[in-house]
Amino acid sequence: MIVPSNPYDAKGLLKSAIRDDDPVIFMESEQMYGDKGEVPEGEYTLPIGVADVKRSGKDVTLVSFGKILKEALKAAEILAEENIDCEVIDLRTIRPLDYQTIFESVKKTNRLVILEESWPFGNIATEITYQVQSEIFDYLDAPVEKINTADTPAPYSPVLLKEWLPNADDVVKSIKKVLYK
User: Fold this and answer.
1) Coil/strand/helix, residue 141
2) pLDDT at residue 181 above 80?
């Protein structure tokens, strides 16, 4: 299952999905159709199941995927102004999930925040949290923080929808929580 966060990854992962012998689900947000970014004219593919470290850091690991990754990157920029160094990981594919990249990052930062555009119950963040606590618990210096939508149906009103969705301010608060706990 592929969930790209930008045009470059979308092209490279789509090419890989087309060439893959196994069934592949390619999830994209129609809200990203207007996004602009560098996309080479030439042929290239990106490996399925390999996360991408979008920003290196030493203080906290921030994991996300899809269109909500933009909020993670905004939060990392805000926190950089306060000398908080976030490592931002874009999962790119959620099945298979690249646990090794997450584990290596958490071993370095000792803290994990996961941002996902989904309800808080039964999601990718829950699985990542389980795997981290199961495999590398001793590296954690604070509980894992999950940032999800509100545990309600998605509202139709644009004003309420904005409140319902996680944003960079929510990420900043959660990161400060794991750093100063």
Assistant:
1) coil
2) no
Please state the pTM of the whole predicted model.
0.94
Q: Which of 46, 96, 71, 38 is nearest to 175 (CA)?
A: 71
Mean pLDDT of 17-27: 96
Residues in the chain: 181
Looking at CATH, the fold of the domain delimited by 52-179 is given as Rossmann fold (3.40.50)
Distance CA 125, CA 123 (A): 5
Separation CA 85–CA 93 (nearest Å): 24
Q: Which residues contact 65 (CB under 8 A, 6 or more apart)?
A: 3, 5, 90, 91, 92, 94, 116, 124
- Output the CA torsion 54→125→28→18 (10° steps): 80
Whole-angstrom distance, CA of residue 6 vs CA of residue 40: 13
Tell me if the bond preceding 143 is cis, omega within 30° of 0: no
Q: How many CB atoms lie within 10 A of CB 94?
A: 21
Q: Helix (H) and strand (E) counts for the chain?
A: 6, 5
